Amino acid sequence: MNPNLNQLHPYPFEKLTRLNQGITPPASLPLISLSIGEPKHPAPQFVLDALTRELAGAAVYPTTRGLPQLRSAIASWANNRFNLASAPLDPEANILPVTGTREALFAIVQALVDRTASPLVVCPNPFYQIYEGAALLAGAEPHYLACRDELDGQPDYDAVPGEIWDRCQVLFLCSPGNPNGAVASLAQLQKLIHLADAHDFVIAADECYSEIYPPAGTPPVGLLEACASLGRNDYNRCLAFHSLSKRSNLPGLRSGFVAGDAGLLSQFLRYRTYQGCAMPVHHQHASIAAWGDETHVQQNRAAYQAKFDAVVPILQEVLDVKAPQAGFYLWPRTPGSDEAFAQDLLQHCGVAVLPGRYLSRDIAGDNPGAGRVRMAMVAPLEECVEAAKRIRDFLRSQ
C-alpha cells in the first residue's frame, strides 16, 4: 500500500458522525441538515432534457479532451464572465473539461508535483480537505496559511517567508472561500501571480462558488481575469477550476472544467488520458446547455440571497454572524466549543451543523476554525428559517 495513505485525516463528515454518536434529535422536530454543502435547489429542467435526449451517448467511449462544442461553450462562458476579451481562452489549448472540480483538484497535484524537490503545497486554513489529501498522496508537504478576520478572511500572504515560496510547487486559492465566503481582490490575485513568477510555482484557483453572490453585488474576480488585467495572454502558471455543481445545482452531473496555462493543460491532458476520467458524452451535451444559459443561475443566486436575508437577522439576535461575500455558507462564532455547540443543536434543536475545527488544522496549537461552525444554506427557504428560529430560541433559553 502507498504509505502516504496513512497520513490522510478522516473526512470532516466522518468526524461529525463520530461526534454525534449516541445523540438523539428531538422526536417532535424534523431533522434539518445544514452540515453538508450539497445544493438542494432543483436541477434546471432544460439541462435534464438535454441529458435524456443524448442518452445514446452512453454507448460511446468519450474522449478525455471532450467534445469541441463543449470546450467552445465553456470558453465562451468564461471569456464573457471574466472579461477576457483582451486574452480570450482558446477552446483547443486553454480549456479541459473535467468530471467535477473535486476530481480535478486532486489530480492536478499528482500531475504537477516533483516529489524529489522537497515540495510544498500551500493552501488556506480552513480549507477544502481535497487540497491536503492531494498534497500528501503526491508526496508533498501541506503548508497551511490561516484565514483571519483581520484580513477579511484571507491569508496573510505578505507574512509568508521566502523559503516557503521557494519550496512551494502549488498554491491553492479558494475564492469565494469555503467556509468563510471571503473573496480575493484583483490586487491580491495580481500580487500572487507575481509571486508565482518570482518563485516558480503554479496557482490552482478553486472558483466553484464564483457564481453565488448577492444579485445586486459585483461578481467575484477570477484568477484568469487577474491574468488578463496584467496582459498575460498565456495565463502562465495559472489554472482556474469551475463546476456546474453549485452554479447550476447539478452536483450529480460531475461536470466542470480547468482553464488557463496551455502548457500545463497539455501535460494534464496526458495524465488524465491514463487516469481514465473522461466525461460521458450525454453529460457533455447537458453541460453545453448549462454553460449556455444564465437565467437559471440568476434565479439560483436570488434564492440563496432570499435565505440570507431571512436567516441572518434571526441568528444575529444570538450569534456573531454575517452574510458571506459570496458562496452559500454561514460561518458564525459559537458560544464556547464548536463541537459542543454542534452537539447541542442536534440534540435540542434537530439541526445538524459542522464544527469549524473539522475544516482546519492545528498549527502550533492554533486552529483557526475552532469556535465556529459552518452552516450550509442549501435546504429550502422555509427549512433554513425554521432552523434559525430553533437555534435562536434554544440560545435564548440558556
State the main characteristics.
7-stranded mixed β-sheet, globular, Aspartate Aminotransferase, domain 2, 3-stranded antiparallel β-sheet, alpha/beta, Aspartate Aminotransferase, domain 1, transferase, 398 residues
Give the topology.
Layout: H1 12-19, E1 32-33, H2 45-53, H3 68-81, E2 95-98, H4 101-112, E3 120-125, H5 129-137, E4 141-146, H6 162-167, E5 168-174, H7 186-199, E6 202-206, H8 223-229, E7 238-243, H9 244-247, E8 256-260, H10 262-275, H11 281-291, H12 295-316, E9 329-330, H13 338-349, E10 351-352, E11 354-355, E12 373-376, H14 381-396
Parallel strand pairs: 1-10, 3-4, 3-5, 5-6, 6-7
Antiparallel strand pairs: 2-8, 7-8, 9-12, 11-12
Written account of the structure:
- It is built from 14 helices and twelve strands.
- It is globular.
- Helices cover 40% and strands 13% of the residues.
Summarize the structure.
With 398 residues, the protein is of the alpha/beta class.
Secondary-structure class: alpha/beta
Helix count equals: 14
The count of domains is: 2
Strand content: 5-15%
What ranges have pLDDT less than 50 throughout 5 or more consecutive residues?
none
Largest sheet data: 7 strands, mixed
Keywords: Aminotransferase, Transferase
EC number: 2.6.1.17
Protein name: Succinyldiaminopimelate transaminase
GO molecular function, one term: pyridoxal phosphate binding
